[in-house]
Amino acid sequence: MEKVKIIADSGCNVDLDLAKKYNISILPFNIHFKDKSYVDLIELSRKDFFEKYKQSEERVKTSTPSIGDFLKILEQEYQKGYRHFISFSITKKFSGMNQMMEIAKEEFLSEKEDVKIEVIDTNTATTASIYPVIKAAELANEGYDIDFIVKKTKENLKYCNVSGVVNNFNALSRGGRLPKAIGKFATLISFSPVLCIENGEITIIKKVTGKKKSYKALIKHLKKLCKKYPTYHLIIGGGDSSEELKILKEGLKEEIEKAEQFDLIDITPVIGSHLGNKVVLCSVFPGKNEK
Predict the structure, then answer these.
(1) How many of the other CB atoms lie within 10 Å of CB of 76?
(2) How far apart are CA 28 and CA 40, in angstroms?
(3) Rounded CA gap, 219 and 172, in Å?
(4) What pTM was computed for the model?
């Protein structure tokens, strides 16, 4: 039986605890403040990130790791006996991670004739990416071969979804996800839309003004998603968002109680650098026997 190693970039929001639980290797982004750079999750915890973020007046930048960083992970796992690899990236519309993985893949394959590597663009990010990564890891740990896991993963990608509210709307412009003028205007008029990632890009689900209306709209949207499946897995993620998460948990109390699985998680620093503090993100996936 050929073992399959699952690798995911840190934008897929698989934290170090989940990575250990499911035997996943994490390829972290780099995070750049004005005074210092850090390796996502490894050198900068989520708590420390948001403390620095709130104090920073400059745009917090991110960058992909080097080809050498990815090759190092592949070589380490190769030495452990792995010959088959599946590597997940966030949408290529957000970063060059997927392209870097493809380049590293070709370089590694040129030196190793007994290796097979599949690079998968999740076409999304953060909590939405958790689902296909974890499902692939479960199959790998159960002993399925790489072709079967890739086939099931491509089927699972259609279930990826994430929606949420960005309270620090300027963060999207600081992170380069929309023009700064729009971010400033949105802050000025308390424009607080419910957002999602669709076709690899951030889009607006509902245009509302005021935080209370935005959370009501988000909760209504999530209730509708939960009704799609007789059983479901609900994930709520936040970044420095304790009060906001309380509002969501209260509004979704019934859905949380009915969920086959419910997880309350922190978003990774690389996602926080683009969405800012006080962000809340939610994903709803089908239960284990609903596909």
Answers:
(1) 12
(2) 5
(3) 22
(4) 0.91
